[in-house]
Amino acid sequence: MPDPSAYRPATGTIPDAPGVYKFRDPGGRVIYVGKAKSLRSRLNSYFADVTALHPRTRQMVTTAGGVEWTVVATEVEALQLEYNWIKEFDPRFNVRYRDDKTYPVLAVTLNEQYPRLHVYRGPRKRGVRYFGPYAHAWAIRETLDLLLRVFPARTCSTGVFKRHGQIGRPCLLGYIDKCSAPCVGRVSAEEHRGIVLDFCDFLSGKTDAMVRRLEREMAAASDELEFERAARLRDDIGALRRALEKQAVVLGDGTDADVVAFAHDDLEAAVQVFHVRGGRVRGQRGWVVDRLEEGGAEGSTSPVPALVEQFLSQFYGDQAEIVEPGTEPAARPTGDGPVSDGTATDSPPADDSAGSPVPREVLVPELPTDAGALADWLSGLRGSRVALRVPQRGDKRALMETVERNAKEAFTQHKLRRAGDLTARSAALQELQEGLGLDTAPLRIECVDISHIQGSDVVASLVVFEDGLARKSEYRRFAIREAATEGDVAAIAEVTRRRFAKYAGEAGGQGPTPGIDPETGKPRRFAYPPNLYVVDGAGPQADAAAEVLSELGVTDVAVVGLAKRLEEVWLPGDPDPTILPRTSEALYLLQRVRDEAHRFAIAYHRQKRSKRLTASALDDVPGLGHTRKAVLIKHFGSLKRLRAASVEEIESVPGIGPGTARAVHTALAGGAQDTTAAAGGQERQQ
């Protein structure tokens, strides 16, 4: 364990100026990034008395092998640089406000001729407006089901839309008046876009004006004796009001604000955020994170100011990067008011093209010491002034108390859920250390699995678990090259050699930071070894992996094999397996690691096999390369539909000429005939 005094900077060498600092471990990997108004004061606090530090801070400084810093001109620059470095290096000791799941959003594809409303998960795209995220996909579908009778916009996929346009008949939603059926020309593209923009306006908060407009239309229809139309408008108004009932009015002055509150103990903290747009609660979200330091401000014993600073800089920094200002088309002029998204009360609204993720006001329980710099930074993200303040009285103070109660309740539930998990993970690592005779607990475990079908499309997966939890950003996939026909043992050896070859070379080098790219400062791929290397298999697989490590000179990695049949653990060179108790946490952890590697390998194998089967039917077509194959498959949706297409339909695809279209049609028709003939021959033989 490194001694902090061994790398403590010399007295007087640390500047008394604002800046950002990085702690690195002995291997050169960045493990913590922080900022300070005075680098000298902040860094000296880490080395004054290690025993008096917060437990997690003490673990960080004893894990580190060095510290470096960068001086900046202002605190705003320090905030921006700290955020950029945390995002770039992903230090293990920095608090990250992120979830282990992907939240669905309601996407409106304004970049298409006929915009579509649909549930979406994944990265944000230009030209698409997003509402949410929601905690559950059913919450989006429930909202859509209520609103489609009022805003009958398209919800079908591109393939379904094209197919119904070709057959000239709308889908079921078109028949029940929950879609305006632009696919068959019931409405023009401009009329359909107007429906979609009205839908976006409603979700953006323009609810009262829309309800009043429908009420006027209902009264006019009644005066003109159009009672069926008036009844339909009455039902539409009822649907809108039912959707509005899900949103509580909490601030009568129409305030746009985010209300943030915390609950904490000595080791962890919970944060809750209520997003209020137009005076209504549009979303709610929460996290539970580890605390690193006792307090954020000099002379302050409360950790809340530091938590406020960490949360605001990371949360709004990430939100602002989702969509760059000005890159998406505005849905409709919105005046001076910000646009809010979402209708659910269990998740926050995402930014859309017409608004900023940073509201006009951010209400917090305590102000950080550099509140002015933080407000300036938030104002820069928004493009207009942002107020950062503590509510003292009235409705805003009452709302803050509600958010605080939610934070305390979430923190209590988290501790009840996680107590068993934390204990189980610690017990599993301790049992593995004792059961396998390891020098230390295996904090980093890597597992390899091979997947193929009778020797075809042989692939391998490598998954990583740190502290008993999956670290999916470091998963790797391998296409087996040399040992594809030699069996699983040879494939395990090839993967092990490819995984550790570069690490062995870096570790044997003379540089001060092996495994660190000198140009980017980031760890190279496979630069850090695991404590435990698990292979899916029995003794032969474990022996093959251990032999490769021995050849490469890697001596600090333990190897085991886990056999599926009886869940036996095989150590290299041992004639008999090690049997872990069936109820032990150690065996359960190994099983989870092995099963995750198996899942990841099968997914890659299916993907590779699917691509090969899809492309194989077109491989013999002269002049048809990979790009035009992909264009054809994307246009028709599947090889089956392409085979059923005529020469004229194939020729209509952009980039496909008459000669190529005839060649594709002939090749696929011949393949279909061969398949039919072969099937007929088999039937005759039977």
Automatic annotation (TrEMBL):
Domain annotation GIY-YIG: ranges: 16-95
Matches recorded under SMART domains: GIYc (SM00465)
GO biological process annotation, one example: nucleotide-excision repair
Residue segments, region Disordered: 326-360, 667-686
Main location, first listed in the record: cytoplasm
Complexes and interactors: Interacts with UvrB in an incision complex.
Protein name: UvrABC system protein C
Organism taxonomic ancestry: Bacteria, Bacillati, Actinomycetota, Actinomycetes, Pseudonocardiales
Name of the gene this protein is made from: uvrC
